Amino acid sequence: MILRDQEVDEEIVDAELVEDGELVPAALAPRPLVDEHTVLMPGESIPTSDDPRRTYTERDLYVSEETAQALKEAKEEGSPQRRTAMGLFEAWCAAQGRVAEPCTTATYTEYGRHLMARGLKVTTIRHYMSLIRTSMPPGRKPDNSLFLLLLTQYRKKNKRALRRKEAFPITLPYLVPMMEKAEADDRPIGRRDSAMFAFGYRFLGRSVEDVDLELEDVTILDDRVLVWLAEDKTHKGEEQTLVLHDRPDLNLIFRLRRWVGYLAEQGITTGPVFREVLRSGKVASSETRARRGATKRGAHLRPQTVNERVKLWFAAAGLKTDGRPVSSHSLRAGGATDLGMNGATDEELEEAGRWKKGSRIPRERYVRPTKDASRDPFKKVPVHDPAAKTQE
After folding, report:
1. CA neighbor of 100 nearest in space, from 86, 110, 84
2. Residue 226's CB: how many other CB atoms inside 10 A?
3. What is the pTM of this model?
4. Count of alpha carbons within 13 Å of 208, Cβ hemisphere only?
């Protein structure tokens, strides 16, 4: 082992001169236990390795069985996107013979380059890599500086990777036929879907917020629906009570009350509002879903299920898009687009969709593209009509 000059000097200073063959007691001075974050009060001594107040035992290191179980459940529940990102990362690590958790900086950087090699969008790569990094144990997160360096180069060399493909907005002219088609057979699943679509449009929520909704948090009045939220993506730790006014074309109260009444007929008055419906027409219980292996979300629907139902009824209603994909996010996009195209202010859009104050997303992502698509400066140019000149 090679010692630095300072280390060599310290070895010499601490050495004792002894006769050959004489043993030296291995008594070492107490080691200070401080770092750049240590804060001491006036008169308080510097803690050292022999301070009895700093002698840890197993009791200081282990959590209880209850806490361990709670941590396991919290980790398993997580967000669907985080589970997806980690699932793909773990599969790639297994194929590469690498450790997924906690991963090394080299593995993290290599996986980022792997996503770039697939030609994914910059926003998608950044989102997935962020989810993976935050999934690592506390204090064991990889350094992302090398990955960000690669991403910067990828952004410069792959302009197509910067392109965002937004969801097609399901505005009322599209939404109403979808709900009517879902209700045409008068089946429970169709009534659930129409209530879910009406709520999703008016609530302007993200699909995970729709399916996480609990019956206890919803109050249905004669002309409005009150929704209590403990928090949302942009209001962490900030509870809200939203007022959703009804309108004749949406029939939110009728559709939601009809579905909630159907749940009550089966003895369901608590828990998720939107649940899986079996072929028999009965609503699946948590026990039923557990037996089928759906243990992650219990009785709650998966956000992906909303995505699938939106696509199903959009196609069944014979509707067409302008090339943009239809997804569960189309409900949120549709509500925002309808508001923006009909004179809603920036503040009203932000409040309705619970975006951060000053967010450019409502205008730039939902309103401006629609206005730009309908704007045609060539309308000012008269139509060329050869027949008209011949008559002259």
Report:
1. 86
2. 13
3. 0.63
4. 10
